[in-house]
Amino acid sequence: MSQENKLNQALKELYNVTGLQFSLLSNPELDTKQALEQIKHLTHAYREKYNKSGFIQELLIEELSSSDIFYRAQKLHIEFHAKRAVYIIETKNAKDSTLLETLKNLFTNLTDDFIIEFSPNNIILVKTFYSKKSKVELEQTANTIVDMLNTEAMSKVRVGYSSIIEDLSQLIIAYKEARLALDIGNLFYTNKATHCHSSLGLGRIIYHLPESLSTTFLKEILGTDPLNSIDEETLTTINIFFDNGLNIAETARKLYIHRNTLIYRIEKLQKLTGLDIRSFDDAVLIKIALMIIRHLKSR
Amino acid sequence: MASVSLKNICKVYPNGFEAVKDFNLDIEDQEFIIFVGPSGCGKSTTLRMIAGLEEISSGELKIDDKLMNDTEPKDRDIAMVFQNYALYPHMTVYDNMAFALKINKVPKAEIEKKVKEVAKILDLEPLLKRKPKALSGGQRQRVAMGRAIVRNPKVFLMDEPLSNLDAKLRVQMRLELSKLHQRLNATIIYVTHDQTEAMTLGTRIVVMKDGVVQQVDTPENLYNYPSNLFVAGFIGSPQMNFLNATVKIVDNNVSLQVGQHSFALPPAKGKKLIDGNYNGREVVLGIRPEDIYDSEVFIETSPSSVFESKIKIYELLGSEVNLHFNLEGTQITAKVDPRTTIRNGDTARFAIDMEKAHIFDKETELTITN
User: Fold this and answer.
1) What are phi and psi of A27, to 5 degrees?
2) Strand B32-36 to strand A114-119: parallel, antiparallel, or no bridges (unpaired)?
3) Same-domain pairing of B56 and B146
4) From A235, which residue of chain B is nearest by alpha-carbon distance?
5) 3-state secondary structure of B316
6) Distance from CA of A12 to the nearest CA of B (A)
7) Burial class (CB in 10 A: 0-12, 13-18, 19+), B297
8) A162 and B CB contact within 8 Å
9) Most buried of A86, A103, B239, B355, CB within 10 angstroms?
10) Pick from B218, B234, B250: which residue ends a domain?
11) Is A287 in CB contact (< 8 Å) with chain B?
12) SS3 letters for A66-114?
C-alpha cells in the first residue's frame, strides 16, 4: 500500500473514532511516515479516552465489584484512588455544542476529568481534585460551571453535585448524591443555581418522607383538603413572614401592607389550622407542611 | 451600543418570594449603570433577567426598543462577565478570546482582526501567546473582559467581576474598567455590593434594597441628596451618623433637640420642617462624619451646633483621622484633619455643619430637607 493510501486509511480510522473529518493535502515537505505515526497516536489516544468515558459512564449507573473496577481502571490508566466528585449539569439542551465545547475546554485534564452527555438535558462532569482545599474547590467548581456556561455558552443551567469520594467504586454513590441534590434543589431551593448534596437542609428530610406519612401529617395540620386549604395570598404572607424571621413589622413592610392587615391574615390562618405562626413551634409545623405540599404537588 | 428599558419588572419565585418589585429604569446609550445594594437586594436577579438567564415574572424589558422578554440570551446581543470566571487553561490568551467567535463560526480573518483590536485596547498584545498559568491575576481578568468585548455586543452585563481579586488589584482594575468604558463608549450594566466601586465607576447608580429601587441618581447626588435613610446610610464610608431628634419651631426659628443638645437649622432647611408641620415631631438627623469639625475656627463661627464629648477611639488612617465618641447614647464618628491634637480619652469640642445636615421623617424614613 502506498504512503498516501496508508495516510487516508489512518484518517478514516480517526474519523470513525472521533467524528472529525480531515482531508489530505499534498505537501512535498511532509514527512508521511511521521504524519502516519502521529495520526495513529491521536486515534489511539481518542480511542482510549472514549473507552475511559464509556467505563466511567458505566460506573455511574452500574454496581460493579471493587476488584473488577480496580482491574479495568488499571488497564485504562485511570487512577483508582483519587478524590473525585460528580456534577450533574441540567440544561435545556445537552446537545448544544457551545455548552459542551465550553465544558470540554474548561476541564481539559484529559486523563482525569470526564465529561459525559448523559441524557437530552443532563451533562455529567466527573472531576478529580488534587489539592487539600478540595472542599472549597468543590463549591468553586460548581459556581464556575454556572457562571461560565451563563457567560460563554449563554445557557441557563442548574448544577447538582456530590460530596468528595475517595475511589472509583464510590462513583455510583456520588452520582446518586448529585442527582438527589439537583432534584431537591429544583424542588425547594429554586432561587439557587447550585446544589450540594452535603447542604440540602430540611428539603432532604421532606423529600424522603413516605407519601402516606406526609398525607397523614398534612391532614393533622391542615384538615381534610390540605393541598387546597391555603390560598395564594396567605401562602405568600407565610413565606415572607418566615423569610423575615417571624418579624411582624418587617414582614408588613415587605408586603406593603399595614401591620393590622398582616395580623388579620395570621389570625385567619390560625382559625383554619389552629396554629399561630407567631409562635416558633407552630411556625415549624406550618413550614414543614408547606414543604410537604410542594413535594406532593411536584409528584 | 444600545439603550435598555425596564418597565414594571417583577420577579416572583414559585414559593411566593418577590426578589424584584416593580423595577423601572431607562438606561441611555453608553451609560455605565451600577446596581448596588446589600446581599439579597435583587440586583443580580435584575441583571440576570436582562441577560435572559432568569425569567421575567411581569413587566417589559426592551433593548433598543425591541421587546426582549422571551428572547434567548444568545439572541439579545449582550456579553457578560460574572464573578466566577475561568480561562480555558490549555488555550493561549489569543485562543481564549477567540473561542466564542470560533464556535459561532466567524471567519478566521475576522476573528484575528477582532482579537487583535481588543488585545490592543486591553494592553494584552504582548501576552497573546501566553497561557493562563503564565498570567497575573489582573491580566487574567483583562482576558476575561476581552472575551466579552470581542463579541462586540450592544450591552455589557457584569456581575461583581472584581470580587475574586485582592484589594490592591481591585483598585487597579477599577481604573482599567473606567478607562475601558471611555474607550469602548459602551453601555455597561454592572452589579456590585461595594459602594466604592459603585461611586467611582458609575455614571448613574441604582441603589436597591429588598427588591425595591431606593434611588437612581449620579454618584454625587446620591451622596449629597440621599432620598431616604437607607441610601444615606449605605452610601459613604464611614457611614452617615444618625441621631433621633425632636423638632422645635419658635418664631420661624427651627432647631433639633437631641437629648440635652439643641442644634439650630439654617432657614432653608428649617422652612421644609415648618411647611411639613413637623413642630414637636420626632425626626432623624443625619450628619456625615466629615461634616463634624474639631477646628476652633469652625467651632467659633458655628455656636448653635457645638457639643462636647469624650473620645473613645482615635483611628489614624494616614490622610485623615476618625474619632469615635458618644452623643446622647448614640455612637458618632467624626472624620477630621490628621493634624488634630485630640487623642483617646480626651474631652473634645465639636461643631456640626448644619448646612450639610440631612433630616429624615422617622416613620416614612424619607428625606425631608433635600
Assistant:
1) -145, 115
2) unpaired
3) yes
4) B16
5) strand
6) 24
7) exposed
8) no
9) A86
10) B234
11) no
12) HHHHHHHHHHCCCCCEEEEEEEEEECCCCCCHHHHHHHHHHCCCCCCCE
**Phi, psi for residue B330 in degrees, rounded to 5:** -105, 135
Torsion angle of alpha carbons B213, B216, B221, B225, nearest 10°?
-30
Closest CA–CA distance from residue B299 to any residue of chain A (Å):
41
For the cut 70, the answer to whether the pLDDT of residue A110 exceeds it is no
Partners of A147 on chain B (C-beta within 8 Å) are: 82-85
Pick from A98, A190, A235: which is nearest to B103 by CB?
A98
The answer to whether the Cβ–Cβ distance between A150 and B80 falls below 8 Å is: yes
How many angstroms separate the CA of residue B82 from the nearest CA in chain A?
Answer: 6
Looking at chain A, which residue has its C-alpha nearest residue B52? Answer: A156
pTM score: 0.85
What cell was used for A158? 442548574
Q: What is the DSSP string of B91-157?
A: S-HHHHHHHHHHHTT--HHHHHHHHHHHHHHTT-GGGTT--GGGS-HHHHHHHHHHHHHTT--SEEE
- Give A240-262 pLDDT, tens digit per residue: 899 889 999 988 887 878 899 99
**Number of separate domains in chain B:** 2
Q: Do B73 and A154 touch (CB under 8 A)?
A: yes
In terms of phi and psi (left: phi > 0; alpha: psi -120 to 50; beta: otherwise), the region of B45 is alpha
- Based on the fold, state whether residues B217 and B278 are members of the same structural domain: no
Q: Does the structure show a pLDDT above 90 at A20? A: no
Looking at residue B339, its amino acid is R
**pLDDT, tens only, B83-102:** 999 999 999 999 999 999 99
**Domain boundary pick from B234, B251, B267:** B234
For B16, name the nearest residue in chain A, comparing CA atoms only.
A236
* Nearest chain A Cα distance for residue B88, angstroms: 5
Residue count (chain A):
299
* Residues spanned by the domain of B310: 241-369
Same structural domain, B187 and B283:
no
* CB proximity B47 to A under 8 Å: no
Tell me the three cell numbers of residue A213: 406519612
ipTM of the complex in this document: 0.83
Is there a contact between B279 and B232 (Cβ–Cβ < 8 Å)?
A: no
Indicate the residue of B14, B79, B85 with minimum beta-carbon distance to A190: B14
Sheet holding B330-336, edge to edge: B292-293, B347-352, B306-316, B321-327, B330-336
A-B CB pairs within 8 A amount to: 78
CA A185 vs CA A61, A149, A288, B42: distances in Å: 21, 19, 16, 20
